[in-house]
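Long-time lurker. I teach an intro course on protein structure, and each term I like to show students one example going from raw sequence to a predicted 3D structure in token notation. This year I'd like something fresh instead of my usual example. Would anyone be willing to generate the tokens for the chain below so I can use it in lecture? Attribution to the forum is fine with me.
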Amino acid sequence: MRIIFTGGGTGGHIYPIMALIERLKERNIATNDEILFVGTKKGLEAKIVPAAGVNFQTIEIQGFSRKHLLSNFATVNLFMKATKKAKKIITDFKPDVVVGTGGYVSGAIVFAAAKLHVSTMIHESNSVVGVANKFLGHYVDKICYTFDDAAKQFREKKKLVKTGNPRSQQVLGLAASKVDLQSKWGLNPKTPTVLVFGGSRGALAINRIMLKSLTKLEKKPYQIIWVTGTYYYDEIQKKLAGIDYGKTIKILPYVKDMPALLPKMTCVVSRSGATSIAEFTALGVPAILIPSPNVTHNHQMINALDLEKKGAATVIAENDLNPNNFISSIDHILLDSKYADEMSNASKKLGVPNASDQVIKVMQEIAK
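-- Reply from a regular --
Happy to contribute to a lecture. Here you go:
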């Protein structure tokens, strides 16, 4: 099967595609030559996709601005040019199906494919549907989604298929090679452990609350792995110079094999992006979620509240975050094994262990 994937700007649009590509190759459904990823030069995809050895092409496109309305004339003009280039890419590659995951680049590619009568589908990984996917819902053959709230936002009810996030299935495979806490960081594998992180670059609010809470946390009967993010690591090390925070707290800039570490965790503290949530729920790890307020339509908060409503997470808004509610939330899970087990079971119910295969099944059904 020949496939064009498109999506960009954020990891939430890219990682589901990378998981699908990996699974397609595993199942011998598509070879590397039969897969093409179309993105932009400026998006995160420009780094991630070529580094993974996946065929990559770009188009130029930009989003609409609410502040600078005059710039939207240029945006419309750019969209028309992008659609024209998209049609050429599609005609040359001759895909059986085109799959978009969001971002303005997917708007142009999937729209062009639909106009050329190529089979099309989109995948929405967040609880709030993005502008591009809302626009494309009318044109595509199928709409795959993760959160029930997202389904309510599409008018095209007959096209909807709940599949979960493909990253869920991928992370289960990656988690098979578990990390040895003892040999790697000198931590006791039998002691409850919490992982605190804010993504590869880190999250300022999470790092700040950890700095404020450190002296109290180091006295607790549990362990902490604090991943600061590469961007903040050196600054935090300077601030902690000469401070003894004990042997049960490990401060790291980055963890490459995060999926392998997650099964060892009693609880995680993190943002609530779609990719992170897919990982936690696939493995059934209880979560304390501190949603980023700097995202479109506050979708991280809505993602997080969906998990909290179902008993899989505790949510603390960034504006409400303080050492008291931060530490008490960790204590509740780490010091109450029954509560932790209940959260873990609730989390597993939300995970979709065969999400990639479900999306691929839809792709095969609509492929011409």
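Some talking points for your students: The chain has a mean pLDDT of 92. DSSP finds 16 helices and 13 strands in the chain.
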